[in-house]
## 1
Amino acid sequence: MTEAQVSGSRARTRQAIVEAAIDLLGRNPAASLGDIAAAAEVGRTTLHRYFTDRADLLRAVSAEASARLERATAQARMADGTGASAVRRLCQEYFDLGTVLSIIFNESLLSADQGWSGAGGCDPAFVAMVERGHRDGTIDPELPVDWVQSLIWSQLYAGWAYRAETGASRHDVLRLVLRTVDGAIAPRPA
């Protein structure tokens, strides 16, 4: 094998372990390293070659969750269109994060000492999106920015919990989430 092939193979194995960890920890935060190794189709020894302990693996999971969240945020194009249409796109992109959302919602997995800021705090682009919605009349101006953010996170959580409990389709659950968020942020008639 060439050095490039070995490097590519190592990167794929590492990514498979991180993917398995995201999937399992998103469904069961107490999943063991053995469970994760089995799901990644590697032995425990191989897992430990890549991640010395659970904390090391959780740092990699945190980094991957953060990268996926950043990509989804960029794909939502929060600066485009009305404030409400941007909120809708953001919900759609975040909904498709799947089990990454469960990890983000589980503060015990991604702690501050791992450099995770998670869903807390509104970044400037989010603030600008909601304030634009206040100005353009698509988001109720009585709803503070941090309230809109909490609303989005709570509905995404509710959507994924509902999907897990009922087995409803992604399409149907996303439609319910968007309908709920659209109705909740819409300005009230005078």
Note: The chain has two domains: 1-52, 66-185.
## 2
Amino acid sequence: MKIGILQCDDVRAYLQDEFGNYPQMFIHLFAALNLSEVPSFVFYRVMDGQYPQHMDDCDGYITTGCRWSVNYDEPWVHAFYMYINQLHVAKKKCIGICFGHQMMAKALGGEVAHSPNGWGVGVMTSQLLQPMPWMARGVDDMSAFALVMSHQDQVIKLPEAAKVLAGSNFCPNGMFQIDTHFLGIQGHPEFSKGYSSALMLVRAKSIGEKRLAQGQLSLNQETDELWIGQSMINFLLS
């Protein structure tokens, strides 16, 4: 399987020596799954206007997070909005992570705005509302999963065709599916706890002292990124 990573941002340069850039984070996530058939990856810097020459160059796509908002009035953001629409019309398999999750919702008629609850940072738990056949083994025993989060915006209104799969009081639309080809995930299965901690410190002033302390403390919790990672592979193969 050939997966195209639609890269919407870079990790800050001074953090890359320790944590890598987004491509390395996704490679590390999927390598940890010990898959019998390891997918190949192609990376497209969509924030620099780089896209696949043909949509079918890859079997499916994953979009990364981004420090900017899907509501920013920037040419590359508008171009990305259009490409997500094109993927949808073609019913091409695509998984949106954080910014990508939000762009999927906005591009198909939903709404994205600053969360009324403030920043979502650190490890946060989502309730599994609707198990799906492509989810990794063990889903029958799971009522919730925990992931690293890092978002100020969130999906406040889903497109009509979207089905909520997981959420929380903090982020009700934490995971959704559209038809059999689009999957949106607000959390970051590719983020390590160390990177989450460093990123919170970078954004400390914006996050606020109380939420920062809560976020840092939450990193002591166990996370389910491997379950999510395997489920992502299953979704792309389904």
Note: The longest strand covers residues 120-128.
